[in-house]
Amino acid sequence: MKIIVWIEFSHGKVKSASLEALGSARTLAESASGEVIAVLCGPGAGQAASSMMTAGAHRIVTIEGESLSNSHVDAIATEVAQLATAESASMLFASATSGGKEVIALTAGSLGTAVAADCISISHEEDAYCIERPVYAGKAILRQKVVSDPAVISLRPNYGKQIEREAATVTEQQSTAESVLKRSEFIEGSAAKVELTEAEIIVSGGRGLKKPENFALLESLADLLGGAVGASRVVVDAGWRPHSDQVGQTGKTVSPKLYIAVGISGAIQHLAGMSSSRTIVAINKDAAAPIFQVATYGIVGDLFEVIPRLESELRAVLQ
Amino acid sequence: MKIAVCMKRVPDTATRLSFASDGTSIDTSEVQWVISPYDEYAIEEALRIREQHGEGTVTVVCVGPESSTKELRKALGMGVDDAVLATSDEPLDPIQTARALAAVLSKRGDDLILFGRQSVDSQGAQVGALVARLLGHPFVNDIAAMTVTDGKVRIEREVEGGREVIEGPLPVIVGADKSLNEPRYPKLKEIMLAKKKPIETVPCDAGAPSLETIALTPPPPRPEGRIIGEGPEAVEELIRVLREEAKVI
C-alpha cells in the first residue's frame, strides 16, 4: 500500500497544514505497513523538501522544471496524477487548504474519482477507508466509505498531527506537465497574512465593532496571538472587511484551536462556520446572544472595555 | 460567445436542518431551496460578459430532481437564456455529478463554463475541477475578477500574500468567489419572460460513485460552556482558563 501526500509550500517554507496531513498519512500507513511518498512540485521544491526530511515521509519526490515555472496549478495536479499512476498509489492525500482543495480536486479528476474533501477523521475498516466530514458548514457530519481506487482524501487543517520519523530518501524528477493558463503577474499584498482556514487562532468581529476602523483593536490582538482576523457576514456585506475574511456557511468554515468572537451575536450560518473550533470565546454585551450557546467561555460586557484589557494583560503574560 | 453556468439547488443557509429517518440524509419536507449562493455570482458574471460582448447565450445546467426547475426558473428570471436539467432523484457523489454535467457540456462546446467556488451544502469545492478534467479544459477556482477579450481570458484571484493574475485562451472553466460581483435581483418583466424560456430535461449519465454514504448525523454537541464574568474584570479569569484549562495560549 502506497500513500502519496501532496505538500504545499511557498517561499521555500512548507505549510504546517501539509505536515499535519503527512503525519496522519504516516500513522495510517504504519497500521498497514504501507509506504508514504511526499510530493512537492514547482520552483523551490528541493529547498522546501530539505526542511521536512523527518516529518513522516519514507520517500520525498520533488518535481521541478521549466514547464511548471509560470503554469497554473492544473499542471501540478497533472504531475501528481502521473506520479499516483506510476506508483500505483492506493491513496492520495493533501491538506484541505484553499490551494490544496484545488490541486487535489484536479488530480482526482485526472484519475476519474471524487475527493473525500475536508475530512476530520479517517480510518481503515474492512479494506476501505471510512471518513467523516462536516457538511452544511458543520450543521451535519457525513460519514462515508471511499470505494474508489485510489482513494483521494483531503484533511481539514488543524485536524492532523505533525510527527517525527526517520529521514526520508529524496528523488528529483523533471517536470513535463504544462498548463495553457499562465500566471502573468503577481501583485504583492500587504504583509503575508495567515490564511483563515489554516489559522490556529482567529479573532473575529461583528456589528458590535460599530465601525470599520475599530477592527484595528482585533488586528492588534490577533497580531499578538499570531492569529488571523475574521468577520461576520453583516460587516463583510457592509464593506467593512474583505470577503476573504468572512466566516460562516457563505464564507469560510474554520476550525482553529481558539476562536474569539467579538461583538458577534451568532446567526445560524455564522455558528455553522465556526462551531467546530476547539475553544470558543465570546465577548458580547448582550447576555442573550446565541453566540454564548456555543462558547466555551463567555464574557458579557462592552468589547471596547474588554478587548483593550485583554490585550494588555495578554501582552504581560506572553512576554 | 457561448456560456454555460452549472448550478445546484441547496437548502437556504438560514435553515435549521432536520434529519431524515433513514439516517443518511436530511428531511427535505420543510426545506426552503435556493440557488447555491456562489452559483449566483457565476450566473451574474455570465450575464455581464454576455452584456459586455453584446452577443452570446447563457445556459444554466443543473443535475437534480425534477423539482429543481423552480430554481432554474429563478436563474432564467435573472436573464439566463435557457436551461438544461439532467434529472436524477438519487443522491450523487461529486464524480457522478461531474460526469452528468460533462455529458451535457461535451455536446455543447461552450467558450466559457462557470461554477460557484463550492456549494454551500456539501462544500467539496471539486465538481468544477472534476468537470474540467473530464472535458480537458483548464480550471481556475476562487476567481475575484475576470475579463474576456478576443478569445482570451484574464483572471485575478486572491492567494496567500497577494493577488495573482492568470491568462490564457478560451475555453476555460472557472469557480466564482463572492468578491466577483453583486448578483442582480430578477425584475418582474424578466420573471414573466422566464416562464416561457425553455428548460430541456435530459437523462442523467452518472456512472458509479467514489463515495458511499454510511450516515448523516447532527454534529456532536459542544461541551457545556460558561459565562466567566462581566466586563473587563473577567479578563484575568479568561486568561487563566485559556492557559490552564483549554491550554490554547
Number of strand elements of chain B: 14
- Strand order within the widest beta sheet of chain B: 7-11-6-1-4-5-12
Mean pLDDT of chain A: 95
CATH homologous superfamily of the largest domain in chain A? HUPs
Q: Which homologous superfamily in CATH is the superfamily of chain B?
A: HUPs
What does this structure look like?
The complex is a heterodimer of chains A (319) and B (249). Chain A has 319 residues and is of the alpha/beta class. Chain A has helices at 16-30, 45-49, 66-69, 74-86, 98-111, 215-225, 233-237, 268-274, 291-294, 303-318; strands at residues 2-6, 9-10, 13-14, 35-41, 59-64, 91-95, 116-119, 121-125, 128-135, 140-146, 151-155, 169-174, 182-188, 201-205, 228-231, 258-262, 279-284, 297-300. In chain A, helix 4 (74-86) packs across helix 5 and helix 6 packs parallel to helix 10 (303-318). Chain B is an alpha/beta fold. The longest helix of chain B has 17 residues, at 37-53. Chain B has a seven-stranded parallel β-sheet with strand order 7-11-6-1-4-5-12, sandwiched between helices. Chain B has a single domain, classed as HUPs (Rossmann fold), CATH 3.40.50.620. Chain B has helices spanning 37-53, 69-78, 94-105, 127-135, 188-194, 235-244; strands at 2-7, 9-11, 33-35, 57-64, 82-87, 112-116, 139-143, 145-149, 152-159, 162-169, 172-176, 199-203, 211-217, 226-230. Chain B starts with a strand and ends in a 5-residue tail after the last helix. At the A-B interface, helix 5, strand 7, strand 9, strand 10 and strand 13 of A face helix 3, helix 4, strand 7, strand 9 and strand 10 of B.
